[in-house]
């Protein structure tokens, strides 16, 4: 990562970091996602949070509001945070590896009562392999015996309210887990003691996905960490970078692809190339779709149509010929100066890497 503040970096032109949630089954990945989406989403008053295709978008304003008790006085430079909704698919190793590939940062969830488990280590290996930055959410702190609930409180404040016994159990478990990480070759430290953000030591944030303690800390850390260590990576670029997450048949739309647009802009009518089982698929974007905002969820089965969409976003694309598209590959846009043949070749290169990943898993 570049030194923050180096020349040629335009902090006014950043895209949202993309974050995925990984970890062992039952550690609380789904619950954490529900918790950060908050109840206001269900109430239709989403605080700017929007449900996207395969992802949830949190605008910076929402994060600022929810972290104000931390008095971090954080200058939020990124427009928001895009969190990929894959926890439900976590039985697919392949999807997990894809998920971690397109993410700028990951939340590795560990159950404080269980410590590192087999899929924690598997996730850790994927993150190491791809050099993906991550933070550890040490979840279920409310299960420490005698925990006093401090709803949605910053973790230091919540911890001060706890009895000596609770604090002792917490410290013991934390120390054990730090040791377990060390055995995997990973240095970790409580986030507020880890001043060397992103420099060999990964941060731990204790959380409860049920009562919300530590959630403000987690949100702030994600944003601060990404904007401190990844300014260059997050600088918006016109070069389209886009990953196919899923290939799905949708009534009335035929076979569609769900993508995460990591960088650049997609337009209705763009000529695109995606990798297909029977060779490259060259087609034209018929529609760019996103779900309706929360309060309009009653309008079933319909989507919002967009003329163009700018990164970072989760989008459903309709076009002809997606029947044999392969999830996990990149989508390419054919520009006016591009040779379609070169792009077809590039698209098919992805096939090899996807296949080798399937072979390994
Ligand atoms: P996933 O498999 O990692 O997505 O885990 P889930 O989010 O489905 O959670 C597994 C179980 O743990 C569910 O019964 C949750 O209600 C529970 N759970 C998740 N997070 C917490 C937490 O912070 N505290 C407590 N007490 N239970 C939790």
TrEMBL record:
Gene: LOC101254977
Domain Tr-type G residue range list: 14-231
Family classification: Belongs to the TRAFAC class translation factor GTPase superfamily. Classic translation factor GTPase family. IF-2 subfamily.
UniProt protein name: Eukaryotic translation initiation factor 5B
Localization per record: Cytoplasm
Coiled coil: none
Species assigned in the record: Solanum lycopersicum
Range within the parent protein: 547 to 907 of 1153
